[in-house]
């Protein structure tokens, strides 16, 4: 005798006689409704002024911003996944009004309007204060390390940079001297080309030299800013892929990273400020955090908790 499991309802295989609203399937307390109301308050007038009346109708910047912010707050950061969710997930479909832009539109909008997104963050902080979701009574500050888009294998010490620069310079001079030695060697190297093209070996070494010289100049500028008028330690390193990233870590696990800091109001855990730091520890971040809160909220909190409780005003 088989167990009497619930059977598939008959209406699952049928079309509804009367049209309905698919968003009625969402619970009334779903967060997409609140997010949508908040997005309606965003001021997008500055970015709207950049659009033209000519050509094909563009997606409204408020809609694109709404999709991006809603996705980011729900852990969806890929533009392709955002487009997919807007076609499959009811909450995302509600935010997108059942018409989602192509993933490339979402991606390009985010990359081309970084300042506007920063301004949107300020607007959300002020909305939270007006709605009494935050009081600036007590703010907590903490940071986390985010791996940079590079690695220790794409870096070089200052001593190695100087040695490599000298070696490559000598190699390039030798190649140029050899290339100019005779017309026969030149013809053999260039074949049917005009002769103005660089030999492949020389082209590679010149590109390598340019990369090293840029990294060396960036390291020297960084150390001059951090330790003015002091000789540079040969052990100091810099990454070729990201000149601004720093070696960070703990417990013996070190890599190139950034120190991301956020300040959260204690009432409803509303984020009031954020900034990115090159410092490996958080000792110097309180002042920057207070500056970010003041810029976004217009005033300072009464107290802030970092590694210890600090009265602010």
Automatic annotation (TrEMBL):
Pfam families reported in the protein's UniProt record: DUF772
Query: Transposase InsH N-terminal domain: from which residue to which, for each copy?
Result: 22-111
Which InterPro entries does this entry report, sorted A to Z?
Answer: Transposase_InsH_N (IPR008490)
Q: What is this protein called?
A: Transposase InsH N-terminal domain-containing protein
State the species of origin.
Answer: Candidatus Venteria ishoeyi
């Amino acid at each position: 005798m088989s167990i009497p499991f619930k059977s598939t309802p008959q209406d699952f295989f049928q079309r509804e006689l009367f049209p309905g609203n698919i968003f009625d399937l969402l619970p009334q307390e779903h967060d997409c409704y609140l997010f949508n109301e908040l997005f309606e308050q965003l001021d997008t007038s500055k970015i709207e002024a950049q659009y033209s009346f000519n050509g094909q109708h563009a997606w409204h910047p408020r809609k694109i911003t709404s999709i991006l912010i809603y996705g980011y707050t729900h852990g969806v950061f890929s533009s392709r996944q955002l487009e997919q969710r807007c076609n499959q997930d009811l909450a995302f479909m509600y935010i997108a009004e059942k018409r989602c832009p192509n993933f490339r539109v979402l991606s390009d909008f985010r990359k081309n309007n970084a300042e506007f997104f920063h301004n949107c963050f300020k607007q959300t902080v002020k909305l939270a204060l007006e709605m009494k979701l935050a009081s600036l009574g007590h703010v907590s500050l903490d940071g986390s390390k985010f791996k940079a888009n590079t690695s220790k294998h794409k870096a070089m010490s200052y001593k190695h940079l100087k040695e490599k620069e000298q070696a490559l310079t000598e190699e390039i001079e030798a190649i140029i001297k050899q290339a100019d030695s005779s017309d026969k060697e030149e013809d053999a190297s260039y074949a049917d080309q005009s002769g103005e093209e660089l030999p492949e070996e020389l082209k590679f070494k010149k590109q390598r030299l340019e990369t090293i010289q840029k990294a060396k100049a960036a390291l020297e500028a960084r150390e001059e800013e951090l330790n003015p008028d002091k000789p540079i330690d040969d052990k100091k390193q810099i990454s070729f892929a990201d000149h601004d990233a720093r070696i960070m870590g703990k417990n013996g696990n070190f890599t190139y990273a950034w120190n991301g800091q956020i300040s959260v109001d204690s009432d409803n855990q509303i984020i009031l400020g954020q900034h990115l730091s090159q410092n490996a520890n958080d000792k110097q971040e309180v002042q920057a955090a207070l500056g970010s809160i003041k810029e976004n909220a217009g005033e300072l909190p009464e107290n802030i908790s970092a590694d210890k409780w600090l009265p602010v005003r």
